[in-house]
Design goal:
Length: 80
């Protein structure tokens, strides 16, 4: 299970690079934070149950933040 978190760290790092190249710096910084989080968790050698709990907590925090952003901050069709 720890290898899966290292893999998540790798892919979030790839996304961070792509966001940075696309001049989307805030999204790139969020993905860098996710990369650091996942890679550090990958080296903790926790039990499989704890990894599942941590991933569930991560998903819940992401969904709450995404929902808040999409409902209260994002302006549909706002453009530039």
């Amino acid at each position: 299970m720890d290898n899966m978190f290292k893999l998540l760290g790798f892919w979030s790092g790839i996304f961070a690079v792509m966001f940075y190249v696309g001049n989307m710096v805030p999204a790139a910084l969020l993905m860098v934070a996710g990369t650091i989080f996942f890679v550090l968790l990958g080296y903790l050698k926790l039990s499989e149950r704890m990894y599942i709990y941590l991933f569930g907590a991560y998903l819940m925090i992401f969904m709450v933040g995404f929902s808040y952003y999409s409902i209260f901050i994002h302006v549909p069709g706002g453009g530039h």
